Amino acid sequence: MKITFKLFASLTDFLPQQARYANQVELEVAPGATILQIIEPFGLPEKMVHLVLINGRYIAPEDRATLALQPGDVLAIWPPIAGG
């Protein structure tokens, strides 16, 4: 099944070179794939996976290992961001 995988801020460095400008990539993933299964091949440091959204809905850390994505879902991840 196809999903859209988006990474923001410093996490875009973990996307393939050709996808970094758009900060997203279309992925073919196994039916029932969870968030953690999808991000594992990209090598994102756990402490950098801060804000996780599926179709704009926040996913709590305790749900990321069990929540399965559906065809057409958009998985978006932001690192911790500080500002002032």
From TrEMBL:
Residues 2-79 form the Ubiquitin Mut7-C domain. Pfam families: Ub-Mut7C (PF14451). This is Molybdopterin synthase sulfur carrier subunit. It comes from Rhodoferax lacus. Coiled coil: none annotated. The lineage of its organism: Bacteria, Pseudomonadati, Pseudomonadota, Betaproteobacteria, Burkholderiales. Gene3D superfamilies: 3.10.20.30.
